[in-house]
Structure formats: structure tokens, C-alpha cells
Amino acid sequence: MSKIKNFLIKEKKETSILLRNIPATVMTLFVISVVCMNLLANKTLLQLDWIALDGGILVSWLSFMCMDIITKHFGAKASNRISVLAAAINLLTCLIFFIASVIPSNADDYSAFDGIFGGTWFILLGSTIAFLASAIINNMLNFMIGKMFVKNPDGKLAYAMRSYISTFIGQFLDNFIFSIIVFVGFAPVFWDGFHWTVLQCAMCALTGAVAELIMEIVFSPIGYRITSKWRENSIGKEYLDFIKGESDK
Predict the structure, then answer these.
(1) DSSP character for 56?
(2) What angle do CA 5, 11, 17 make, to 5 degrees?
């Protein structure tokens, strides 16, 4: 029992230090992108026989870019912690929106608000599972690929390779897991037979991953510059020193 208590105390302390050390701008953009990704997933942008896209692809690249930045500077474990926190904030936000949507109102825009922000429980379930699974895989891949660049781990090539590969795989899994859960598993039952085929899910995942990879390539110089500035200015020194001290014990 004492081991569990000590573990929880350590985890709480480590998380508190991490939250104090991650710059607010990146943290804010990350959480907002996760919340928006969930809301936009309610919107199908395109549906053909062989491909379907939902609105989440418009902003999910930003979530993965923020995770890449955090993983590069603070490590995969830190990025996983922040991903879980972002998912929790997203769930809380959805709960607030749901409560607001079910409160009776005579306003003309009530039904529109209900449709957009009321959400559907299986979309929330699918997006949460898909995001957490893909985030952990993305962060671990990013970290492991970075370890391969022994001579120049902080160079542009190292940052590009770890970001591009992990983002593509992570985004594919995020899109595919979400699509299978929502549009193959639950939609046929709860949306009057509306559904995607497994092929559409796979093509959605692949097309979305390619589109989001392109966005990652376009904006990765910004991510690299941010991590370089953090390193030069010793951002997060308290957390990094704490982690180093723990590993030396």
C-alpha cells in the first residue's frame, strides 16, 4: 500500500513540475486542437464509394505537431502525460456542452446548438480511444527514432525524420481506429443505417495521414525553431533536472 501511495505522490509531483515548465502557448494550442478535433469529427466533409473524410483532419495535424515538440524537448513520457490531460479536458468540455444542449430553451438556434455541441456518445468514445492510442504510439515512435541520430540528435534532419514518420503512422492509426469504431461499429445502429465501409475507413485514414503529413512538413520548421529556442533558453530545466535526478537514483 505504501508503494502505491509513494508512486502516486511521485507521479503527482512530476506532473505538477511538468505543467509548470511547458510554455503556455504550446500547451494551449495542443488542448484546443484536441477539443476542436473532437467537435469537427461530427462533420463528414466527403463521402465517396472509396473514400470518406471527417472534419477532424482540418486540425489534427496541430495536435501531432505539438506532441512532436513536447516529445523532442521533454521526452515521450511527458508528452503522454499531456496527451492524457488533453483528453480529460476534452471529456470535461464535451460534458459541459452536453449539459448545455439538453437544457430546455425556446431560442430558435437551440436545435442547431444541440446538433453541433450536444455530440454523440460513441463519437466521443471513438475519438478518445483513437487519440490516446495514436498519441502514445506517436510519442514513443518519435522518441525512438530520435535516439537513432546519435551524432546530431538536435539537427534538422533528426527532427524532420522523427516528426514525419511518427506523425504519418500516428495519424493513420488515429483516423483508422476512430472511423472503425464510429462509422463501422456504431453508426449503422444509431444513425439509421448510415455507415462507412472498411475500405472507406482505410482510405480515409491513409488520405488523412497524407494530408496531415503535408501540413506537418509545411509547419515543421516552426516546430524545430521552437525546440531550438527552448533548448537555447533552458526552458523546462526544472523538469529535466528532476527527471535526470530520478533516473540517477
Answers:
(1) G
(2) 135
List C-alpha distances in Å: 140 to 72, 92, 101, 115, 136. 11, 26, 38, 36, 6
Instruction: Find out whether 64 and 223 touch, Cβ atoms under 8 Å.
Output: no
| CA dist., res. 82 & res. 62, Å (int) | 14
What's the one-letter identity of residue 65? M
Of 213, 218, 240, 199, the closest CA to residue 21 belongs to 240
189-238: pLDDT as tens digits: 877 777 788 888 888 888 888 888 888 899 899 999 999 999 999 999 99
Cα separation, 56 vs 183, whole angstroms: 14
Instruction: Please report which helix (H) or strand (E) contains residue 45, including its range.
Output: strand 44-47
Cα distance between residue 162 and residue 147, in whole Å = 9
How many of the other CB atoms lie within 10 Å of CB of 117?
A: 16
Residues 6+ apart with CB under 8 A from 2: none
The dihedral over CA atoms of 199, 65, 55, 132, expressed in degrees to the nearest 10, equals 70
**Closest to 123 (Cα-Cα) out of 177, 166, 165:** 177
C-alpha cell read off for 139: 510519442
CB 166 within 8 A of CB 68: yes
Alpha-helical regions (H) of the chain? 2-21, 24-40, 60-74, 76-102, 110-117, 121-147, 156-179, 187-190, 198-232, 237-248
- Predicted pLDDT at 240: 94
